[in-house]
Amino acid sequence: MSRKNKKNIEIENEKLIKEIKRAQLDVKTAECFFHMVTDPELVDVAIYELEAKKSKYRYLINVARNKGIKKSLKESLIDAMAK
After folding, report:
1. Which of helix, strand or coil describes residue 67?
2. Per-residue pLDDT tens for 6-47?
3. Number of domains comprising the chain
4. Which domain holds residue 38?
């Protein structure tokens, strides 16, 4: 594999990890919204939003696994959870 291709793969992996971190934050935000709403109509909205955010997060995790991103992904997620 050429040096240029390897660098491009590293950049793509870093972008994916950033996207996963963002998705993780989106899930936390949706969870907060769910816990804050009191209007029955908004509860439904909050549930659907939370499930959609979780689904995206699971999808991105699977993409990372399929690309073989393991150690750096795990470290990144641990760092994100610690914040």
Report:
1. coil
2. 888 889 999 999 999 999 999 999 999 999 999 998 999 999
3. 1
4. 3-82
